[in-house]
Amino acid sequence: MWYTNFGPSGDIVLSSRVRLARNISKIPFGNKMSDADLEKIESICKDALPELKFIDLSKMSVFERLALKENHLISPEMADEKKSGSILVNDDCTLSILIGEEDHLRIQAMDSGLSLEKCMQLANQIDDRLDKKADFAFSDELGYLTCCPSNTGTGLRASVMMHLPALTQTCKMESIIRSLSKLGIAVRGIYGEGSTALANIYQISNQVTLGISEEDSLSRLSQIVDDIIAKERSISLEIYQANKFRLEDKILRSKGILQNARIITSGEALSLISDVRWGINLGIIKDINHEQLLSALYESFPATIAKNHNTSSPLERDLKRGEIFQKVLKSN
Amino acid sequence: MWYTNFGPSGDIVLSSRVRLARNISKIPFGNKMSDADLEKIESICKDALPELKFIDLSKMSVFERLALKENHLISPEMADEKKSGSILVNDDCTLSILIGEEDHLRIQAMDSGLSLEKCMQLANQIDDRLDKKADFAFSDELGYLTCCPSNTGTGLRASVMMHLPALTQTCKMESIIRSLSKLGIAVRGIYGEGSTALANIYQISNQVTLGISEEDSLSRLSQIVDDIIAKERSISLEIYQANKFRLEDKILRSKGILQNARIITSGEALSLISDVRWGINLGIIKDINHEQLLSALYESFPATIAKNHNTSSPLERDLKRGEIFQKVLKSN
Q1: ipTM of this predicted structure
Q2: CATH architecture assigned to A2-234
């Protein structure tokens, strides 16, 4: 899967995502949409994109839905809600079209590392193909019409997932978050809105969709991400130079625990993984690579474990998580 | 060296020691002994035991003395004091004769595991050879005369070093110590009198030297040690059965830290080593054996590190200790 690959600037950027919010004319928006409306939208999408796999969320267990969320294929809202909804996904899961989320359609394109343009291209292709079959709600004055006014205009939200241990440790994230917010850029935790920054991973995304072109939106975000990458890299080296032994000790202990513990909670795993990632970047850890770590990270999310291994209790999951790390993080 | 070998009942017993306190007639005891007296005793011993290596402690640095203490070749008193004194040792360091400690002579025989009889034999041989050259202070009524009345009689102190994590964890050591004390058996930390039990290691020794034969003294101690071994083994299994995953987790984490940490203090090392030893005994750890662990333990004592690696600060020693564990505890 794309999310275990090491992409461009993969030392800092885990993944990129572009999503387009779209609604279809003459079908009621949001809560007013009926089950029959939903089926109509699904049928338009299947017709326009026959090669994609259709997944009906209402036929899935809670853990299966949550596992889709952990793999970024659906939003947290779609995982938690009991309401109907469905998705269309491609083979490598870089594309997922959420049907019946807040808007009729959310076209999501994702890839590893800093790859906003690649994601934008894929999303645009799909948008064009859907546009031929569906009459999208569009105003010449405002642009694409959406359920929530915050998405109206381009309907574009682009985001990158960044791992920023050095900026976090030196308490620089707060001021970065403040100044980015003034530029219309939001900083959130790993699962978007409302989620806290676990494992020093932050989601950086554009907020402005009105009165700006898609291209400008994307290039502004890219510029900001490049700046943050440069800052993180330079402060990371500063910290290492100033505290070589202590930092090596902290990072190597985390590696030792991650490779040996029998019982690991999800929270502890994220914190240990953050240390090990940092250690790989600084050259402190040479016998584990980013791909291994990403693979262990995604395999060890709670719902993914529950789904893959049919575990029934938190202790069973924590034990299985220990097994996964021991297996995946074997020294090279 | 003997102390890194896995001896009889080596899962629980690290080492055994027998020491005989002897004084020479017509030479003043204790503080009243002059430098000339000391030289006279040294000369008698060298003459009687020409194959042994003579070490003059007054010519050694503090770290060299402390390293001898860490290897059990001299007592803590001889390491700390600035007063003169010397030892005679054999090639494999199973024998050391302390000259000018509290008594004129202390004949020490040591070996790995539970091997009190073997130690007694060696000590007796040396005692006999010295007896031919020296006129030992002896009373038909009391036995061998010593500086402190607590040693008068046999002059024998036999001790075993036991690793008792299960009895410690279940808080059973206190009552064991109390009841052994009534039987004339003392329980102390790893370096004898006054030292606390680090790493769940206890020194069990006989206290009665008057009105008892050497053989009875030894067989009583052996019996008690056998009882404690049986108790430790059975409680250890009980704990493991009741808390399998939690105990495995604790032990494997300790192993992971010991194999990976960059900076380890002496105190932390002892506590981690205790867990790993226990893990080897329970079959939880299979890629490290007791010999490796004992070798790392003895190599990583503070003064031994200072002496072998010429370190000057505690941080340097803690870094070197990390290196030693990484090197010695490489998975088999």
Answers
A1: 0.86
A2: 2-Layer Sandwich (3.30)
